[in-house]
Prior knowledge:
The complex is a heterodimer.
Chain A: E1 5-14, E2 17-27, E3 32-36, H1 43-50, E4 58-63, E5 66-67, H2 71-75, E6 77-80, H3 92-103, H4 108-118, H5 134-145, E7 152-156, H6 164-179, E8 183-187, H7 191-197, E9 200-205, E10 208-213, H8 215-218, E11 221-228, E12 231-235, H9 243-252, E13 257-264, H10 267-275
Parallel strand pairs in A: 3-8, 3-9, 6-7, 7-8
Antiparallel strand pairs in A: 1-2, 1-4, 4-5, 9-10, 11-12, 11-13
Chain B: H1 3-17, H2 20-49, H3 59-87, H4 92-97, H5 101-104, H6 110-143, H7 152-175, H8 178-205, H9 208-220, H10 222-233, H11 240-248, H12 261-281
Amino acid sequence: MAPALVVRDLGKRYGSVQALAGVDLEVAEGELVGLLGPNGAGKSTLVKIACGLVRPSSGRAEIFGRPAGSAPARASLGYLAELFRFPGWMSADEVLRLHQRLAGAGGGAQERGELLELVGLHEARDRKVEAMSKGMQQRLGIAQALVGPPRLLLLDEPTSALDPVGRRTVRELLETVRGRGIGVLLNSHLLSEVELVCDRVVIISRGRVAAAGRPEDLSRPRGVEVDTEGGLRSFPSAGRAEAPRLVAELVAAGELIYGVRVLETTLEETYLQAVGDQTA
Amino acid sequence: MRAIPLVAAYALQEALRRRVFAVVLVLTAAFLGLFWLGTRKAFEEADEFTGTTDVPVDIQTLTGATLFGLAMFATLFLGTVLAVFLTLGAVRGDAESGLLQPLVVRPLGRAAFVLARFGGAAAVCAVYVVLVFLGALLIVRAAGPWSPDRVLVPALELAFAVVVLTALSLLGSVFLSSTANGIAIFMVFGAGLVAGLLGQIGEAIDSETLVSVAERVAWVLPFEALYQDGLHRITQETRGFTQVALQLGPFGGAQAGSSSLPAWALVYLVGVLALAAVGFNRRDL
């Protein structure tokens, strides 16, 4: 079985600007991969190439073994753009019905109802898009992307207009989607969100992959802190493995121990280390 | 291919919900109402004028043909306005506002999308033009004793001219912003009309250069040639001084198109749509 998304040596040039310069990336079925990077790093370009909106200058992108942009590839995916709009005169239900028909999905009213329920819009099914808040439109956008249902979901900043409750709803929804075996590529600026839900993280900087791996693999030891009667004692070069020995030595030296903390870099620190000071 | 009627229906539904058609109907009713008033008055005054001159001109024919020519020009203009507003932002405008991306990532194909947007707009414009043409015809027939020499072919040619303009507007929407496209299409429309008038002036003053320029423009912009041919056909059997008098006016004496005009216009239309599809296919969104 081919992976949901395979990107190999992908390059994209807009005039004199090199947006992507040889990116490799893979998303398996049922895997949730977070795409991180500063503004202008090439994340949205990568997602757009994957769904066929942008043509690559070099390299290749495949969806379930089919070239990105081909009809079979597009039939397998759901996409939410960073900047999107639905016709203001359409109701939530009409938007989903249109996309069902375009996708050739046979879920009918039941699927539409389930999707609106999933994104918390079941009471707004007949509300016109123009009467919806930005957050509601974004949730409708996610529901639209799930029409089909797709086998691969490409989400470009899906929570940018959502409040904390809305973001939690989306996190839960992503976990549900992953549970159904759908691969997800999540492009987001919110590191905490990515850290919470993603199986793997890919950090892109200046059009290249700067770091990739599981969130826990990307963190590095940053020392051990021991709370003693004499105050907080820090051991910056120690790791998790040295913690028992350090505690034993302190106890032997007559210290009373109240707590031990093994310190690790956060995803944010890893991110900042990977991208340096790059920002658009 | 199943997506073509779906996208065409979506575009029409949008026009309907946005009340584009309501505005068009009101403005068209206003135009036809004013045309009826003007035509009635013109025929009444033509009646009074008949017999007061020794020049053997059929005043009723001159009046009817000139007024109906004016109605054909107005119909072409209104049809063009409708075509432009239905298509001016169909690709780049909708892409810039984020409306297009969710649609074209679906497995319908960009060429099918272009064809669907064209089909929907062209059908509406063609039906509109034929209905307004017939409305103007009924008004002229009711107001005075004149009927055009040909009805069906001029109506179809006028509709075809607007269909060609619809395709040009759709092609423009692939490359230009909505505003730039609207301006460009109206300038092309104006250039075509000016070329047609130059041709008429060239005929009147026997200037081969002007006639040649007009003929070349007619090949480049066949909507103008179709309109001119339709205009020519409504008085194609008029002879004598009446014909001369008609030729001196802005809506008479139009040049007949060559026999290959319909075929050329069809090839041109297919070419414009193919260019639009290729341009859209190559465009990054």
